[in-house]
Amino acid sequence: MTRPRPLSDRDLALINLYANCQLGLSPRRFYAKREVSHEAIASICSRSPSTVRRWFGKGKHYRAPSSDDLRHLALMDFLLEHYDEVPPDLFDRLCGSPQRIQPQNPDSSST
Amino acid sequence: MTSTPLFIDRSHPSASYQQALCDFGIAELIEALSNFCDPDFDVGRMHLEEQELEHLATLLIQQLCVSLNGKMMAGYLNVVRNADAWTITDLPRLELKPLQHLLVLPKSFPHQTSAPRFLDGDSVCWLSLPNCSQTDRGIVIGRFFAFASHHGQWEWKYLIWLKDTSSGVLADTAWEEDLESLEEEKYP
Asked: Which residues of B touch A58 (CB under 8 A)?
């Protein structure tokens, strides 16, 4: 078994950057950008549709999403925007995707 | 995994809904909040989202409901019955209760905490929302005490093992008030 690698200044800076990253996208903003269903948002955030519906509720029916939910949506949004720019080998390390998603048709709308 | 519909109804609130917001001063409250500025709170610097403004308005109205008292009500009734003699500046100022802190567990926990309504193994479902009869159901597999931002206080939250796991999501969490019991046998 190999010994853990000691953290360099760069590693510590990256950990600090990630720990304090304000990455987040509200469900309403995500929903406004794309014609996506509540069920799809539920799948992205690993939530039930009942929970997601409350993120869009009004007044006493509103429940706030967690910071984890906001980060899920921000990452999904980032991927939808920039997937084609990520080298396949690098993306496979992240998600272990067994198949490459076809690049976006340039004729279709981007957002 | 079942396929999900790509398109859903995105209709805006009805005209009567908007009219009610105006009639009861809620639209005015949201408008006042969206332009609020004093030495302690400048909305212009906060970059508030629409739902945050609505959330603030809801919290303030809830606070008003729990802050009613006889002296205040008498003052308001005076205004109602003698409206011609009063101006808006004559209205008494409210002293709303401070909210619990989301980073500090209440000192009363667990001794003065309300008993949880649901127990492990109970069958429950999420309450239906207006204009949507769809709901999810499951079995309570745990609970924890958490800060409910929609009430500004700490409340019970439950971990629910979902009945329908076809989407790949096995469990979710829900606030106590969003759940109701299902008349089914307890697990197992």
From this structure: 13, 54
Give the position of tokens 């101006």: B87
Q: How would residue B77 be classed by pLDDT, with cut points 50, 70 and 90?
A: confident
pTM of the model: 0.77
* Short-list B5, B66, B15, B56, CA closest to B32: B56
Q: Residue A93 is encoded by which pair of tokens?
A: 């390390």
Instruction: Please name the residues in contact with A79: beta carbons below 8 A apart, sequence gap of 6 or more.
Output: none
Q: What is the pLDDT of residue B65?
A: 86
Backbone angles phi, psi at B35, to 5 degrees: -115, 10
- Using an 8 Å Cβ cutoff, are A71 and A79 in contact? no
State the nearest Cα–Cα gap between A30 and chain B, in angstroms. 13
Do the Cβ atoms of A48 and B149 come within 8 Å?
A: no
Is B8 close to A37, i.e. CB distance below 8 A? yes
**Chain A CB within 8 Å of residue B54 CB:** yes
Supply the DSSP symbol for B129: B
For chain A, residues with pLDDT lower than 50 are 109-111
**Contact by Cβ (8 Å): B155, B105:** no
CB atoms within 10 A of CB A39: 20
Q: What are phi and psi of B130, to 5 degrees?
A: -55, 140
- Please name the residue of chain A whose CA is at the shortest distance from the CA of residue B58: A59
**Nearest-angstrom CA–CA distance, A57 and B111:** 33
As a 3-state breakdown, chain A gives helix, strand, coil percent values, each rounded to 5, of 55, 0, 45
Beta bridge partners of B37: B42
